[in-house]
Backbone:
């Protein structure tokens, strides 16, 4: 059946006709400026003109091996296309465009992120000179091999050993137990010929803790595994099955002394250890990746929102008023309540990701000149934001799926793939509960320091025991953010009181910590969300001076919705600490419902301004033209089961059953 695809269906045309702001201006803000929008579009144009980057057949219909090969084909094509056109892989990652073509598990993603970042961040000048050009030109291909079967979270508990042999000036890498097997690293199974490996450093019989080593795994000509190494793929996962997440074991495998990353800590030829300036500098790649994941999570959430909001404007169901035509489902207040707070979250995360990147850049510059004092704050902020961003992106994406009813469950909606890809983000790069507990540790330490009169770093300065009285009226944005801050201060104070009470009654500090850890995780989550609210309010108020009133109004509404929603979510705490009363909460609830109706009017235009083209959305439900039903129908025709009217299964199983005398 031939299909005539209209420019854009009537529903979406009407929605777009109601736009009262300059979409391009909002797009520029989200990209970080008009120049970055222009650059992103140039990359997109180039990629769209490279047909090899697009799938002929959905990965769902391919075998495990074909799926991997197909993704590898596209990944290598992407890298060469970028290179030939004068762009870097980083351009494709930071704009999201390249990743969206490969989000079924891109086997080069670990190479272009954590492998290269480790080389850049952990090498001494000689190592940098030797490894960086090889890695940048894909002469060596690597991954980040840290997690083991027995330990992922507890890096200090890793079992792989790197024992220095001063007679040969080599490290001997060994996996002494089954649980020491490296397990999970992306692209380790079949793609990588190198890995940066986290292993316990042993010198003269003494363990110096986890350190990073560059290890060649495969021959560079034949790609065969080197002697002393066992490597393979770990099998199917919940999602991203086009990747070759792998396992790795060492059997007394030798590497040169110079293969230990020596920017921060060193081993001399005679086996002496030189300490780093800060004991956690070797965790730097993880911190950097967490910063990137905040952006990544916000981008994935935005794809889900575009799909669900456009679909909600096209889908008509039920009767709102008996006898009237079926309304767009976006007109139902409950549908708005499902989607619009997540739309606000996307903007909040985008502004916070930018603020975090600035902290990261500032801290990295400080580290270069030996200043370590900003590291704890960066660790706390990046851990908290990584956890909130991935939690919210996963929850938001699933809500988007549910908001699309049955069709959201179709693979062709692309919502399942977005969901499974981002769901991994809750676990990888530091499991979220564990990261929140790191934030809580920082909060309690800061709270205690402040009780002793010490000055606190900027992100926790609001925890001061004697806060300056806020002059902002409660119902203003600033006033409500202050109320949220008061709530976190109360929660952290309460956690500290409970910890102290347990210690005073004879518990060890560690037992007390565990006994309070549910509350501590809530403190960390609330603190991070307070930080996000602050960043959102600051960003919108700064933009107010430079943007047109239409765009400013939309941003102000989204920011307001984010704050109101957060206050309602935290109502119990805020009532307990007296930051708000029941009357205020009632009016906040009413205002939220009113705001949902206001934002609904321009919701389609707001998601249009995120500016993700159909080829990157890859969704039958979310395309620009709104031609949903035709697309779903056509996609179903591609199922291999539809190649013949009667399948083999009928002759083999169904017919015999029907003929049997049961
Ligand atoms: C750009 C686009 C990107 C796109 C992304 C998509 C693709 C991405 C693909 C990704 C694929 C996935 C790839 C992967 O998954 S790669 C594998 C990732 N694995 C992890 O993330 C493991 C998580 N675990 C850890 O990081 C550590 O073990 C933790 C932190 C939990 C504890 O650690 P440890 O047991 O050693 O420490 P401690 O708890 O005794 O605390 C002791 C002190 O140390 C301080 N401390 C701890 N850590 C740091 C730090 N980093 N900087 C500064 N300070 C730090 C801490 O605050 C405390 O300070 P104080 O309280 O004593 O003052
Ligand atoms: C898709 C994917 C890709 C990955 N890619 C890589 C990679 O490229 N390289 C790599 O090295 N690794 C990789 N990993 C591994 C990943 O980093 C780990 O799975 C992650 O760090 C969590 O560790 P774990 O699996 O040991 O979980 P565990 O730590 O065993 O967590 C299990 C449960 O125990 C809880 N828990 C653990 N410790 C504590 C604590 N101290 N306090 C309270 N609760 C606790 C957790 O909250 C969780 O609920 C990947 C994982 C996935 C899923």
Residues:
């Amino acid at each position: 059946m031939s299909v005539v695809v209209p420019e854009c269906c009537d529903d979406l045309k009407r929605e777009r006709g109601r736009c009262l702001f300059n979409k391009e201006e909002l797009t520029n803000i989200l990209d970080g400026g008009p120049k970055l929008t222009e650059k992103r579009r140039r990359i997109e144009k180039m990629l769209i003109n490279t047909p090899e980057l697009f799938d002929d057949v959905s990965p769902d219909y391919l075998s495990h091996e074909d799926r991997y090969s197909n993704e590898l084909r596209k990944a290598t094509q992407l890298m060469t296309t970028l290179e030939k056109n004068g762009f870097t892989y980083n351009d494709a990652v930071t704009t999201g465009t390249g990743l969206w073509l490969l989000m079924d598990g891109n086997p080069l993603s670990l190479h272009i992120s954590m492998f290269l970042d480790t080389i850049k961040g952990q090498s001494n000048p000689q190592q940098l000179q030797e490894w960086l050009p090889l890695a940048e030109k894909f002469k060596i291909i690597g991954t980040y091999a840290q997690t083991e079967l027995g330990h992922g979270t507890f890096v200090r508990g890793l079992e792989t050993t790197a024992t220095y042999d001063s007679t040969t000036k080599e490290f001997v890498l060994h996996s002494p137990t089954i649980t020491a097997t490296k397990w999970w690293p992306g692209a380790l199974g079949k793609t990588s010929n190198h890995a940066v490996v986290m292993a316990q450093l042993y010198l003269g019989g003494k363990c110096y803790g986890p350190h990073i080593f560059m290890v060649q795994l495969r021959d560079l000509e034949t790609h065969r595994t080197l002697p002393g190494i066992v490597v393979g793929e770990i099998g199917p996962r919940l999602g991203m099955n086009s990747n070759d997440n792998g396992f790795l074991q060492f059997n007394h495998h030798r590497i040169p002394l110079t293969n230990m990353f020596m920017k921060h800590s060193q081993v001399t030829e005679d086996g002496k250890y030189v300490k780093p300036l800060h004991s956690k500098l070797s965790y730097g790649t993880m911190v950097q990746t967490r910063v990137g994941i905040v952006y990544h999570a916000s981008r994935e959430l935005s794809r889900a929102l575009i799909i669900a909001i456009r679909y909600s404007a096209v889908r008509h169901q039920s009767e709102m008023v008996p006898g009237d035509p079926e309304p767009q489902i976006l007109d139902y207040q409950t549908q708005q309540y499902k989607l619009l707070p997540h739309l606000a979250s996307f903007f909040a995360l985008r502004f916070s990701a930018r603020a975090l990147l600035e902290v990261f850049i500032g801290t990295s510059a400080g580290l270069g000149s030996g200043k370590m004092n900003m590291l704890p704050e960066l660790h706390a902020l990046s851990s908290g934001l990584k956890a909130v961003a991935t939690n919210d992106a996963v929850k938001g994406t699933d809500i988007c799926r549910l908001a699309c009813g049955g069709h959201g469950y179709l693979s062709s909606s692309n919502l399942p793939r977005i969901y499974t890809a981002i769901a991994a983000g809750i676990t990888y790069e530091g499991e979220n509960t564990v990261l929140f507990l790191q934030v809580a540790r920082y909060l309690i330490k800061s709270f205690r320091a402040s009780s002793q009169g010490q000055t606190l770093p900027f992100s926790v300065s609001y925890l001061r025991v004697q806060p300056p009285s806020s002059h902002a009226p409660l119902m203003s944005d600033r006033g409500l953010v202050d109320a949220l801050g008061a709530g976190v201060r109360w929660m952290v104070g309460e956690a500290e009181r409970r910890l102290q009470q347990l210690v005073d009654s004879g518990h060890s500090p560690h037992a007390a910590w565990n006994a309070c850890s549910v509350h501590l995780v809530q403190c960390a989550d609330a603190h991070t969300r307070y930080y996000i609210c602050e960043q959102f309010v600051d960003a919108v108020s700064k933009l107010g001076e430079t943007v047109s009133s239409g765009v400013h109004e939309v941003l102000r509404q989204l920011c307001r919705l984010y704050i109101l929603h957060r206050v309602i979510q935290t109502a119990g705490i805020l009532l307990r600490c007296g930051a708000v009363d029941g009357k205020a909460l009632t009016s906040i609830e009413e205002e939220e419902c009113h705001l949902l109706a206001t934002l609904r009017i321009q919701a389609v235009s707001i998601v249009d301004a995120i500016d993700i083209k159909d080829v990157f959305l890859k969704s039958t439900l979310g395309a620009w033209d709104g031609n949903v039903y035709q697309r779903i129908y056509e996609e179903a025709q591609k199922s291999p089961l539809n190649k013949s009217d009667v399948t083999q299964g009928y002759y083999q199983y169904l017919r015999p059953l029907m003929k049997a005398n049961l």
